[in-house]
Amino acid sequence: MEQPITEAKGKLTGLVRLAEAGERVVVTRHGQPVADIVARRDWMSPEAILALIADVQPDVGQRDVSPMPFDLYDDRGLPC
């Protein structure tokens, strides 16, 4: 849902209630998005995001990044 900032000022309580119910409210100025109102539970701290990534991919940063076998490429380094 989009809401012009001039109208949002008088409806903040209702817009926050919509966000709490799961609605994303986009606040606009002259038709351009300038802010979102979303429920706080939708956001994660950077630390929580990194912890989640580490749980899902514990080997991130430790992967073998050696090149593919050379026989897949010609002497110019192009795929065969």
Written overview of the protein:
This protein has helices at 5-8, 12-20, 46-56; strands at 2-4, 25-29, 32-37. With 80 residues, the chain is an alpha+beta fold. A three-stranded mixed sheet has the order 1-2-3. The radius of gyration is 24 Å and the shape is elongated.
Give a brief rundown of this model:
The protein has 80 residues and is an alpha+beta fold. Helices cover 30% and strands 18% of the residues.
SSE order: EHHEEH
Cα distance spanning the termini: 51 Å
Low-confidence stretches: none
What is the overall silhouette? elongated
Mean pLDDT figure = 79
Major sheet: size, sense and barrel closure? Answer: 3 strands, mixed
Kindly identify the CATH topology of the domain at 2-56: YefM-like fold
Q: Helix content range of the residues, please?
A: 25-40%
CATH architectural category of the domain at 2-56: 3-Layer(aba) Sandwich
Per DSSP, the total helix count is 3
Radius of gyration: 24 Å
Content of β-strand: 15-25%
Strands of the widest sheet, in order across it, are 1-2-3
Identify the CATH class of the domain at 2-56: Alpha Beta
Task: Determine the CATH superfamily of the domain at 2-56.
Answer: YefM-like domain
* Helix-and-strand structural type: alpha+beta
List keywords for this structure.
three-stranded mixed sheet, 3 helices, 80 residues, YefM-like fold, elongated
